[in-house]
């Protein structure tokens, strides 16, 4: 879809930015540095931030190295929450810009737009608003199962387990198939061009019954670009009533959002963090998270392990994310972030590890004899409520030992890191 008229209108909107009413504050919501025709450019997403975090009247600017506006683009989506900008290599040459906009809190779906800025006067929507309907075309009850018809016209019967059916009290209405909830760009076939890995949910009585994964490949046919979809995967959701794995968080200054991938043979969900008023910090934090999760995603893409995450701590100062990887046996990797700076928090920031008495006390209190603290502390640790836990792989098995923080009070350096106060 070509959006020349939208671009012109966007420029007119930009001229009016200085006469906005006082009812809302115009803020920068996201940013991205990229290249266009070999020159550095910067993309900035702006919007009217209303109470409750909703951003209206979105406008995406492209600026040159001198911060001069090259062009502006007004998305067809009216507004939303927790916006991201990312670069995607769909074809040779300049990367396309992926704009994603949340429809609500972390549980809600998202709208995705892939934009081509090669011609500044004629911005193209490579992945348009209508593509967000996804690959599911129809869902119907079939007894205790669901018939799911996909974009290729084939219908799949999805059997639901008893525990999940028990949680659905209203069966008169056909299940909903929501629009896309997640999109990840990845070069799955190693041809130097990214595919889009999307996920959408099938829902009944506000309960997610299954996630539907698909792979989108941009192809050219008769001189026109079009999407080919395939590798459809329908995966039942967990029926656990109190399962918090892969849950996001809506906190005061940030939001933790699940990003999910479903492929034949496995699934992976990892966290992304949206800062509500700090686009630069948002980029820095997510670059750090991606670096930490990449080794586990590599195993997922090879079909060797699934990936999940858990939010362990959300205080005004500390955000702790636990990455989980495996099939039958699981390993845990903990990422601790300073909320204010986005920097990694190390165990040396919390405990005075220079004191030898710390190790003597840990060995004395230790109830897992497979762990020895005489030579130092394990690399992996996390805090849960009033305890600190240490993890270490011993002979192929992950061993854990927990200690009450009250018993370690004389070694605690900064009380803010163990504050129970939550956002």
What report would you give on this structure?
By secondary structure, the chain is mainly beta. The protein contains five helices and 24 strands. The strands form six sheets. Strands 1, 2, 3, 4, 5, 6, 7 and 8 form an eight-stranded antiparallel beta sheet that branches. The radius of gyration is 24 Å and the shape is globular.
Report the strand count: 24
Spans with pLDDT under 50 lasting ≥5 residues?
7-12, 15-22
Shape: globular
By DSSP (H or I, 4+ residues per run), the number of helices equals 5
Structural class: mainly beta
Series of H and E elements = HEEEEEEEEEEEHEEEEEEEHEEEHHEEE
Multimerization state: single chain
**CA(first)-CA(last) distance:** 42 Å
Fraction in helix: 10-25%
Strand content range: over 45%
Strand count, sense and barrel status of the largest sheet are: 8 strands, antiparallel
Give the averaged pLDDT, no decimals: 90
- Radius of gyration, rounded? 24 Å
């Amino acid at each position: 879809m070509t959006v020349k008229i939208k671009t012109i209108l966007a420029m007119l909107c930009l001229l009016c930015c200085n006469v906005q009413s006082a009812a809302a504050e115009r803020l920068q919501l996201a940013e991205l540095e990229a290249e266009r025709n070999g020159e550095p450019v910067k993309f900035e997403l702006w919007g009217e931030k209303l109470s409750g975090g909703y951003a209206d009247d979105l406008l995406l600017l492209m600026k040159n190295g001198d911060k001069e506006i090259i062009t502006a683009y007004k998305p067809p989506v009216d507004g939303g929450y927790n916006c991201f900008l990312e670069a995607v290599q769909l074809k040779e040459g300049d990367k396309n810009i992926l704009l994603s906009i949340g429809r609500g809190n972390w549980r809600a779906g998202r709208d995705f737009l892939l934009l081509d800025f090669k011609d500044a006067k004629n911005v193209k929507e490579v992945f348009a608003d209508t593509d967000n309907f996804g690959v599911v075309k129809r869902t119907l009850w079939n007894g205790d199962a669901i018939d799911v018809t996909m974009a290729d016209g084939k219908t799949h019967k999805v059997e639901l387990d008893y525990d999940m059916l028990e949680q659905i009290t209203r069966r008169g209405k056909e299940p909903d198939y929501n629009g896309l909830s997640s999109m990840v760009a990845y070069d799955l076939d190693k041809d130097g061009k990214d595919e889009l890995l999307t996920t959408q949910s099938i829902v009944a009585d506000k309960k997610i019954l299954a996630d539907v994964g698909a792979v989108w490949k941009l192809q050219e046919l008769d001189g026109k670009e079009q999407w080919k979809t395939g590798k459809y995967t329908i995966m039942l959701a967990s029926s656990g009533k109190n399962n918090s794995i892969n849950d996001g968080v809506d906190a005061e200054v940030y939001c933790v959002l699940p990003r999910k991938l479903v492929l034949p043979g496995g699934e992976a969900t990892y966290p992304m963090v949206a800062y509500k008023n700090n686009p630069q910090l948002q980029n820095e934090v997510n670059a750090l998270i991606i670096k930490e999760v990449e080794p586990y995603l590599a195993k997922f893409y090879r079909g060797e392990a699934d990936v999940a995450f858990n939010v362990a701590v959300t205080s005004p100062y500390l955000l702790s994310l636990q990455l989980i990887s495996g099939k039958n046996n699981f390993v845990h990797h903990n990422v601790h972030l300073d909320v204010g700076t986005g920097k990694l928090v190390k165990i040396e920031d919390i405990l005075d590890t220079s004191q030898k008495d710390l190790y003597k006390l840990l060995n004395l209190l230790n109830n897992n004899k497979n762990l020895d603290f005489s030579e130092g502390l394990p690399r992996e640790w996390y805090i849960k409520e009033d305890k600190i836990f240490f993890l270490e792989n011993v002979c192929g098995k992950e061993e854990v030992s927990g200690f009450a923080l009250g018993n370690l009070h004389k070694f605690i350096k900064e009380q803010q890191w163990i504050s129970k106060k939550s956002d």
